[in-house]
Amino acid sequence: MSVALTPAQVLRLWHDVALAMVRDDEPDLSLRQMSILLTIYLEAPPHTVRDLARKLEVSKPVITRALDSMGKLELVSRRRDEKDRRNVLIQRTVKGALYLERFADTVVNLSRSI
Amino acid sequence: MSVALTPAQVLRLWHDVALAMVRDDEPDLSLRQMSILLTIYLEAPPHTVRDLARKLEVSKPVITRALDSMGKLELVSRRRDEKDRRNVLIQRTVKGALYLERFADTVVNLSRSI
DNA sequence: CAAATATGATACGGGTCCGTAACAATCAAA
DNA sequence: TTTGATTGTTACGGACCCGTATCATATTTG
């Protein structure tokens, strides 16, 4: 089953969503942060810094810093892997789930007018 | 006619799009820059700094700086309003149109797999 | 055990963006 | 004409992110 959007619908939807996100006062996540957050929530765990760096094709410090930022916002959390203590396991949080839930609802509602 | 996306489809689509944009090497536009670019291309002219600042609910320097950045990339251009030389009219460019066309095509293609 | 490898974090210099406050240019009104 | 509004830009100090190189810790290998 395909969503089957047209280019004009895509641009209108992105315009409305971007405008809604710019207008509200919450701290906007960067594209990289959003990629990380969505990957953590949509793909099966475990998620490590190395895996995310490879998946996004960015360096490891990019992931570490993004996790620092989103950790302060409590959108993700980190825990040492007890099986291999070199690894850090990135985990979901309630706030992160709510953030994405609200985001999805916003987009769904805007998509109704298109 | 409504696009009628579900929350799960929204998150999957955004994930795929964000990942594609992070991976390619082109300079990513910020959310604010994207809002401005889409507004210029989707809404009827004329567009002035003041109008955009009011529409996005941000300060005028934010608009000026975003136009500086996107002007360097030749995604938008500026021209003085000869009727009222205080105003600056923001205009579309060929590169800007191509940028959004490519972006829309990317999203459309990704939406087919969802 | 010692050496090599793997993982994530940190340091550093540079770039971009932000918000507020000032500013020059232009127009309108007195 | 002179005073006051309006428009867009710039200045400044601060925050954030980047890429590369380096580091500490942990594991694997010889």
Summary tags:
homodimer; 114 residues; mainly alpha; Arc Repressor Mutant, subunit A; two-stranded antiparallel ribbon; elongated; DNA-binding
Summarize the structure.
The structure is a homodimer of 114-residue chains. By secondary structure, chain A is mainly alpha-helical.
Strand and helix layout:
The structure is a homodimer of 114-residue chains.
Chain A: H1 7-23, H2 31-42, H3 49-56, H4 60-72, E1 76-80, E2 88-92, H5 94-112
Antiparallel strand pairs in A: 1-2
Helix pairs in contact in A: 1-5, 3-4
Chain A binds a DNA duplex (30 and 30 nucleotides) through helix 4.
Order of helices and strands of chain A: HHHHEEH
CATH architecture of the domain at 29-103 in chain A, by name, is Orthogonal Bundle
| CATH topology (level 3) name of the domain at 29-103 in chain A | Arc Repressor Mutant, subunit A
Largest sheet of chain A: 2 strands, antiparallel
- Give the helix tally of chain A: 5
> Strand order of the main beta sheet of chain A, please?
1-2
Q: CA-to-CA gap between the ends of chain A? A: 20 Å
Regarding quaternary structure, how should these chains be classified? Answer: homodimer
Task: Characterise this structure.
- The structure is a homodimer of 114-residue chains.
- Chain A is built from five helices and two strands; from the N terminus they run H-H-H-H-E-E-H.
- Chain A is mostly helical and 114 residues long.
- In chain A, strand 1 and strand 2 form a beta hairpin.
- A two-stranded antiparallel ribbon of chain A has the order 1-2.
- The first copy, chain A, has a domain of 75 residues: Orthogonal Bundle (Arc Repressor Mutant, subunit A), CATH 1.10.10.10.
- The first copy, chain A, is elongated.
- In chain A, helix 1 packs across helix 5 and helix 3 crosses helix 4.
- The interface between A and B is large, with 44 and 44 residues.
- Chain A binds a DNA duplex (30 and 30 nucleotides) through helix 4.
